[in-house]
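Sample 3 of the quickstart, ligand zinc ion:
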Amino acid sequence: MVFRERPFLLRDFVGKAMRFLDSEEALSMGFVHDRARTLPCKWKCSDESVFGVDLCLYAYTGQYPFDKGRIGGRFNEGAVAAAVHHAPINVDFGGAHVGYETSPAGGRFGRIPRPLHGHSMSADCGALMALVQPFRDLYDEACKNILVFCPPGTRGIVSIPNEFIQPSWSTHRIKLLVDLEALTVGVVPYDADLGYTHKVVGRSLFRLHPRFMETMSKHGLGAQPVPIGRELTAEYFNIFDTGAEIGDDGVPKERVLPYMKHIVSGRDAPAALKIAVISTNLEHNSLTDCVRAEAYRPYSFACFTGVFIDVYDDELEAYVNLFQPLGLNIKPAGRTRDVELAPAEIRAIFDKIELAEPRLPIDQVMGHQRPTRPLEDFVFTPGRYEDV
Ligand SMILES: [Zn+2]
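Result:
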C-alpha cells in the first residue's frame, strides 16, 4: 500500500524532517525542538550500504548519531535509557533496509552490488534475507510439487505430497502445511476404474474447494496435473519454524515469523521488500511502546520510521539511500501519550515542506552532490517487479 507513492531520497527526507521539527505543526503536537538539547539517533542495520543515514544525520545536525539499532534493522530498546541520559530530546530515524536494482520490469529487491569488496552482487539486507530464505525455498517447493488438475467428470483435484499434510513426514525444521479445510472438500477415494484416483506413493488426492476452482477457472484447468504455482496464496497454507524460540508470551521471539506466509506468498511485492516493511512496522511498535513508558515521561521523542532502500549508483560509485516513511511518532516531554502519524499524513505534510539548511556542507559530508538517478530509476509499483 505505502509503495503506491514513490520513496523520498533519504537526504531530502532528513532535510524536510529537520524543518518539520521546527514547524508550528510539530509545536501543535507538543514537540519543542531545542537543538542544544537534542540527540540525533539511528536504529538500523550495520551494513555499509546504509551508512548514508549516519552521514545525512551528521550533515544536518553536526552531531554523530547515537546508535539505537542492531543488525537486521532492529530497534534496541536497551539503548533508550542511555540516549535520554545524553540529551532529553531524542530524534530517531530508523527501519530495515533492502537493496534495489533497477530493471525495466519494475526492479529487483534483496540484492546490491558490492564492487569495493569484489562481489558483483550480495544479499541486502543479508540478515533479513537469511531469515526469509528457507521459508521461500520451502514455499517454492510447495508451489512446484502440489499439483492441480481437472479430469473429466470431476470438479478439480489436488495432489499433495504428504509432507505438506503431515508435519512428521519431513525432517526439515521449517514446515509448510496445506490448510485442507480451505483448499479442499474431502479426499478422493480410490477407484480401480478411474485412472486419476490411482495414487502416487507419498501423495494424497483431494477434491478442490469450489472457491479455489473459481480463481483457477480464469486460467482454465486441464486434465493433466500442473503445479499449483503462486495460486497457493496465504489463505491455503501455514508455514512455521518448529525450532523457533518462543517468548514468555507464547509467541516466537522473532516476531516476524507469524507473518512469513504473507511475506513469501504475496503477489504485490517481493518477499525481500515485504519482510523489510513488516519487520520495520514491528520494530516501530516496540519503539512507540517503549517511549510511552512512565520512565520516559520527562523526555521528548520524535521518531521517523521507514524502510531504507539501498541503491548502488555506478556513476557516483557510491551507495545512495531512498526512504519510504511508514510512521512518525511524536512523544512530547511531560506526557506518556503520543501522536502517531500514518504514511499518508506524513506525505501530506512533507510534500509542502522545504529542506532545512544543513549544519555542515552536505555534498562534502556525503561525498557527492545530490543524486537524481536512483530516484528516477526507482520504477517499482505494487505488482510490478522481478523476483530475484
Ligand atoms: Zn542488513
